[in-house]
């Protein structure tokens, strides 16, 4: 199954956080045994995810599985919980018996809540106990209910956020830049975006490198490719590359290859 091309969300239960956390955590999710069996049966399957620069926690509640991050492959044991940045293409090789609890942060969210800069995690699979207390992870695994896990983690993250709030300035500027660019339909240049934020282009560049780990230009190129590809998959007949800032379909096709590593025709008929 491939992100955007296939609805990979149908295999999971989802929860969107409330209060202050909504600005920094995109969602909590947990794989559903019933939905997984309904859609894939007893078969092994692979979920392919494209770059998003979103730090993601995987807490393993089930069996071992494999992660491919870029060109590197990792075996994740039953007792192992990991953090990945998702700055590259990621593939998770699953069994029908897999049971994974996921926390996906927005870019910079890890720093705003835990005071941990995401840049250091590029192209890595990091053991989760390096950023979360082992006792907390153990408690999450002991609980048997999705809602109980969410309540435990939300309370922990809220407490941590209140302690770190004063250091979230850089993250807030970057998030504001992302919001403005999305509202402009991805039309602002980096200089125009900096002007909207009453900052210099150099300052905005520095903040993106510090918070996300890539330049504004590179980050928004990734966001544009994701948005355009999702729009194309949703309705090919109404799709216009101009709506996403592409010169023509050829320009869009080339970006799809750069973004997904494959030709559009290989995934969409």
TrEMBL record:
Protein name in UniProt: AraC family transcriptional regulator
HTH araC/xylS-type domain location: 172-261
Highest taxon in the source lineage: Bacteria
Signal peptide from the UniProt entry: none
Source species taxonomy: Bacteria, Pseudomonadati, Bacteroidota, Cytophagia, Cytophagales
GO molecular function: DNA-binding transcription factor activity; sequence-specific DNA binding
């Amino acid at each position: 199954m491939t992100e955007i091309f296939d609805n990979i969300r149908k295999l999971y239960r989802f929860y969107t956080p409330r209060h202050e956390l909504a600005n920094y955590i995109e969602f909590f999710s947990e794989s559903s045994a019933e939905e997984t069996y309904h859609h894939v049966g007893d078969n092994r399957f692979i979920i392919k995810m494209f770059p998003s620069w979103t730090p993601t926690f995987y807490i393993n509640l089930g069996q071992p599985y494999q992660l491919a991050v870029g060109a590197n492959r990792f075996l994740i044991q039953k007792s192992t919980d990991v953090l990945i940045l998702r700055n590259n293409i990621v593939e998770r090789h699953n069994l029908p018996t897999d049971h994974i609890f996921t926390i996906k942060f927005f870019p910079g969210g890890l720093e705003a809540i835990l005071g941990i800069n995401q840049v250091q995690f590029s192209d890595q699979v990091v053991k989760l106990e390096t950023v979360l207390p082992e006792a907390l992870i153990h408690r999450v695994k002991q609980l048997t209910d999705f809602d109980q896990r969410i309540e435990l983690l939300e309370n922990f993250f809220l407490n941590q956020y209140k302690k770190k709030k004063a250091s979230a300035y850089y993250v807030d500027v970057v998030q504001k830049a992302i919001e403005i660019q999305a509202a402009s339909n991805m039309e602002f240049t980096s200089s125009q975006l900096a002007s909207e934020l009453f900052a210099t282009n150099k300052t905005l560049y520095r903040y993106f490198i510090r918070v996300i780990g890539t330049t504004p230009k590179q980050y928004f190129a990734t966001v544009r490719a994701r948005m355009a590809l999702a729009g194309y998959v949703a309705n090919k007949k109404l799709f216009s590359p101009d709506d996403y800032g592409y010169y023509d379909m050829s320009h869009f096709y080339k970006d799809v290859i750069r973004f997904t590593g494959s030709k559009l025709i290989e995934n969409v008929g």
